[in-house]
Amino acid sequence: MFIWGVLLVMAVLPVIWIGGEHFYFHSALPLMVLVGKWFVFWAAGIRLFSAGLVKLVRPQFTTEGIFGIESRDALPFVRELGAGNLAMGFVGIASLAKPSFVLPVAVAAALFYGIAGVRHAADKGRTLNQNIAMISDLFVFLVLVAYVGYVALA
Description:
The protein is mainly α. The protein has one domain. 81% of the residues lie in helices and 0% in strands. It is built from six helices and no strands. The chain has helices at 2-24, 31-57, 59-66, 75-94, 102-122, 128-153. It is elongated, with a radius of gyration of 16 Å. The termini are far apart. The model has no long low-confidence stretch (mean pLDDT 94).
């Protein structure tokens, strides 16, 4: 379930919405602007908001299911991370109504996903869930960096 949810919001749905807006609705926006819009909404907005909810309500999923930590000592830290995820996710979702939010959220999410992806990569005994998290984090990091670079050069 975790794998499919991550793949859906971190890659499949953004690509579908980009393609739909670009090819079906013939948006006048440049393709890279659509990339920023939909990756911020899905990968930074929906993904981080939903991850934040899970970390707040069921922090043991993160500690046990992703990091393999059986101790309850880490639960308060995971809840704190959940609050941050929820906050950034909310602003990512709000970016559909307020397009000026897209660039700042893209920068913040790129930093978050880049650091998280590198941290996962540094773990030698990664689980399947950690591998999925690492790959998806680094993929979204690269997409968002490309978008931020495009906006900076425009």
